[in-house]
Inverse folding.
């Protein structure tokens, strides 16, 4: 028993480290180097808990309609507890320059990679849930070092990848109010602190509302945004979807397809996780903070993972890829704090134009539509939603986690999308 | 959001599974049957005695896990906001079960709490198992010593179990010891629903409330009862209502403490998210607001279980995760339970709460029980609280702290043969558990006139 307690205490070693740094900095604006170093005892505690997983009986259906299937989860959890090596994930992070800075009372962790090319365009990219900076790591090379990845020197970006408050190695807010608007303000302050006077922003999933809020707020220096989960659903379509009504007449083929996808997702209950975290994040928080298997299942329940097999059939979606992300949630003890972002948003959908107040965005907006996204934004709706749409492109590969699944294609899209804004730069 | 929605009918699939052999799950293996398992289908309809018994290692293992609980950080809202009841609750008040409450619960559960007392109480009752429709069904069966006792089948709900009904067994079967007369006596049958407690876990889909209702009628007839009544709250209410809709000739009346009374025009207004219609009386307006709020902000857990029950792996791997999930049923019962862990018990003690949670843990039924929400969603034609057109006699308890307090006007419309409209001074969603005396009074009053037949 003592060993378990010790392990639990040690698991908080990282937080302790952060707190220490914070105390000595006394709310200053300094930017402090940061290295991830999880105590070995925390990793052993995790392995022990994984090995002791107590399983339910098998689902009573032969598909995913009751949730994460037992036979699909078991091999992943087994590998997690035996073959998986967090130290490799830690090394992936630690080969990149990481920093901490306190903004608005919350410690903000971020990766900051400057390009070797002069005049690189500064870009702040925001992850989502159940993602983290891990979902963005494979774009660091292509974006900051384009000449090594099929691009040109003038396509280079200086890249800033923060962990949202309550996520990963950032601090956990201790008061309410940390929705996308406040995160957006924090990001603007971060870019300012880094000395960037002209920059762009990008995001999918929660990164989309955060980037959109930045565009709405239009802080000095922000030139435009690119999003891969745009909020284009018009109010009259949102109203029909809210009551589960039939498709309105007069839709184009692509609008009809988008409506059907959203309608089917609603009927299949694909957002049940969002409803739960949107109303009672603390209640689900105990189970997923105490059970690694519970956490893994809860995260893999996101529809963005529905086509992932967590095996080695696709190197971009290998078990290590998802386990790096899940393990980071576990080790940073952030399953509950991350879920609160849904509560802050009242469980509302981030694809509705009215929810995102897209008409208030005057800055340039660029959109890439990835074919396996939860719905495919039609260009007609996108033009209605975003008055200043400078780029709209449908690509042939990739899903909800576009940067994770198709890093090269994703990077090429960002180069193309932001190219016109460089002329102002 | 109502969990009722159109979905493919899976009944066709059931025909093939009716004769399927029972699966023995990890949880079921923990039970000791005092009689041998049925060796052949011919013995399936036999009624076998059942003894509750868990190995000490499982109790020890539970305690070890409780002690190793890994906590999240505290919720970001105040205690006052977290404890607000349905009368005052507003959007954005609560983030769920409070850390301080959970820590008190876990501290007590892992140290002072003694499961063996609950096990002894269960063992003092006659338990049986019988196979119905391919599944082993557990039930408690207590016969009254009084002649002419009225047989009643009482069904628990989620997150309840037979434990929520233990306090009413003696008042119902032995009324002369509990302010009643011999003429108030009942023979009591208390089954565990499929996937719950000591009943088997279905391994095929199809065990929705309708199928359970059918099984209950089979059970009562198998026990030799040809004239009986049924009672329930929560899922027990839905199942009891389904029995009433089927109206087998043996079922003469029902009593429900979660009456489904919402009239069709109100169902429509709720679905549209409209404000309360202007012509509602004060009780109706309050009921409307309670239901509207519950559908919008209180159903997250039900929604998750109706849509992705299997994703809740954490509930069977983490005692704290299971406990918090079970505590967060509805605002009023949560406030009551939380006060109990603060040292102010009113009807539900810490032991009451933990007896029930421990039963879910030891039987490993968190997910198998959650599937009832999923099953309901496949076939339900109406929401939990919508009036369903019952024509047989019905008695009602409209508890003041229920998810919604059924107004008398709606109750009279929903149940044309209303036997009794009870309005106890106190009582939450778990009426039989929290206020066994008021519950017993209402059940007696409801069926009094039917005893002479």
């Amino acid at each position: 028993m003592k060993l378990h307690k010790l392990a639990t205490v040690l698991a908080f070693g990282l937080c302790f480290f952060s707190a220490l740094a914070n105390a000595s900095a006394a709310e200053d604006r300094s930017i402090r180097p940061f290295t991830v170093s999880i105590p070995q005892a925390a990793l052993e505690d995790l392995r022990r808990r994984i090995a002791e997983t107590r399983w339910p009986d098998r689902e009573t259906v032969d598909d995913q309609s009751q949730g994460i299937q037992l036979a699909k989860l078991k091999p992943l959890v087994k590998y997690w507890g035996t073959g998986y090596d967090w130290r490799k994930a830690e090394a992936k992070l630690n080969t990149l320059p990481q920093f901490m800075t306190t903004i608005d009372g919350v410690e903000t962790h971020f990766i900051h990679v400057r390009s070797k090319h002069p005049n690189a365009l500064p870009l702040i990219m925001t992850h989502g849930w159940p993602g983290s900076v891990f979902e963005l790591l494979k774009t660091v090379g292509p974006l900051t070092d384009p000449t090594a990845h099929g691009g040109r020197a003038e396509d280079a970006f200086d890249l800033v990848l923060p962990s949202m408050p309550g996520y990963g190695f950032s601090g956990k807010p201790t008061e309410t109010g940390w929705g996308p608007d406040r995160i957006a303000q924090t990001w603007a302050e971060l870019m300012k602190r880094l000395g960037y006077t002209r920059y762009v922003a990008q995001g999918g999933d929660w990164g989309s509302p955060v980037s959109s809020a930045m565009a709405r707020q239009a802080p000095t220096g922000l030139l435009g945004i690119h999003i891969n989960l745009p909020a284009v659903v018009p109010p009259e379509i949102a109203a029909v979807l809210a009551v589960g009504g039939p498709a309105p007449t007069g839709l184009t083929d692509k609008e009809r397809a988008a409506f059907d996808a959203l309608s089917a997702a609603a009927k299949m209950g694909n957002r049940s996780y969002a409803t739960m975290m949107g109303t009672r994040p603390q209640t689900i928080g105990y189970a997923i903070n105490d059970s690694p298997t519970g956490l893994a299942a809860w995260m893999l329940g996101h529809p963005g993972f529905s086509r992932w097999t967590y095996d080695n059939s696709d190197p971009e979606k290998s078990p290590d890829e998802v386990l790096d992300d899940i393990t980071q949630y576990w080790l940073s003890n952030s399953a509950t704090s991350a879920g609160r972002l849904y509560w802050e948003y009242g469980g509302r959908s981030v694809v509705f134009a009215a929810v995102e107040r897209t008409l208030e965005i005057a800055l340039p907006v660029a959109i890439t539509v990835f074919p396996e996204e939860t719905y495919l934004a039609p260009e007609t709706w996108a033009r209605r939603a975003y008055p200043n749409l400078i780029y709209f492109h449908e690509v042939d590969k990739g899903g909800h986690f576009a940067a994770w699944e198709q890093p090269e294609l994703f990077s090429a899209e960002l180069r193309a999308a932001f190219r016109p804004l460089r002329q102002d730069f | 959001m109502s969990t009722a929605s159109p979905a493919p009918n899976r009944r066709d699939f059931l025909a093939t599974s009716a004769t399927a052999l029972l699966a023995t799950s990890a949880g079921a293996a923990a039970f000791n049957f005092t009689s041998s398992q049925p060796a052949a289908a011919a013995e399936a309809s036999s009624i076998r005695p059942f003894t509750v018994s868990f190995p000490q290692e499982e109790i020890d293992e539970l305690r070890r896990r409780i002690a190793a609980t890994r906590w999240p950080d505290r919720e970001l809202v105040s205690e006052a906001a977290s404890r607000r009841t349905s009368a005052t609750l507003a959007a954005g008040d609560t983030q769920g079960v409070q850390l301080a409450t959970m820590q008190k619960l876990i501290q007590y559960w892992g140290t002072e709490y003694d499961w063996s007392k609950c096990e002894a109480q269960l063992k003092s009752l006659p338990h049986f198992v019988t196979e119905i429709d391919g599944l082993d069904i557990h039930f408690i069966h207590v016969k009254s010593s009084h002649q002419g006792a009225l047989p009643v089948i009482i069904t628990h709900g989620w997150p309840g179990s037979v434990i929520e009904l233990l306090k009413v067994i003696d008042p119902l079967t032995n009324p002369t010891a509990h302010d009643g007369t011999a003429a108030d006596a009942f023979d009591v049958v208390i089954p565990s629903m499929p996937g719950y407690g000591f009943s088997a876990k279905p391994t095929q889909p199809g065990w929705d409330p309708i199928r359970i209702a059918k099984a209950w009628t089979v059970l009562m007839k198998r026990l030799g009862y040809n004239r009986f009544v049924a009672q329930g709250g929560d899922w027990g209410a839905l199942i009891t209502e389904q029995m009433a809709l089927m109206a087998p000739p043996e079922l003469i009346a029902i009593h429900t403490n979660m009456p489904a009374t919402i009239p069709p025009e109100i169902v429509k207004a709720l679905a549209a998210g409209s404000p309360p219609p202007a012509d509602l009386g004060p009780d109706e307006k309050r009921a409307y607001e309670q239901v509207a709020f519950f559908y919008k902000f209180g159903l997250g857990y039900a929604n998750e279980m109706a849509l992705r029950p299997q994703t809740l792996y954490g509930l069977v791997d983490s005692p704290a995760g299971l406990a918090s999930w079970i505590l967060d049923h509805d605002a009023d019962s949560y406030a009551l339970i939380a006060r109990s862990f603060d040292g102010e018990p009113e009807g539900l003690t810490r032991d009451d709460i933990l007896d029930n949670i421990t039963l879910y843990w030891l039987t490993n039924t968190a997910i198998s029980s959650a599937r009832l929400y999923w099953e309901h969603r496949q076939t339900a034609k109406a929401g939990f609280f919508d009036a369903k057109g019952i024509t047989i006699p019905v008695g009602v308890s409209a508890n003041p702290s229920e998810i919604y307090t059924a107004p008398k006007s709606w109750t009279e419309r929903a149940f044309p043969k209303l036997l009794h409209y009870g309005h106890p001074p106190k009582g939450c969603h778990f009426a039989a558990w929290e206020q066994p005396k008021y519950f017993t009074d209402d059940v007696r009053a409801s069926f009094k006139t039917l005893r002479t037949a």
User: Anything to note?
Assistant: Residues 1-42 of chain B have pLDDT under 50 and may be disordered. The first strand of chain B starts at residue 47 and ends at 50.
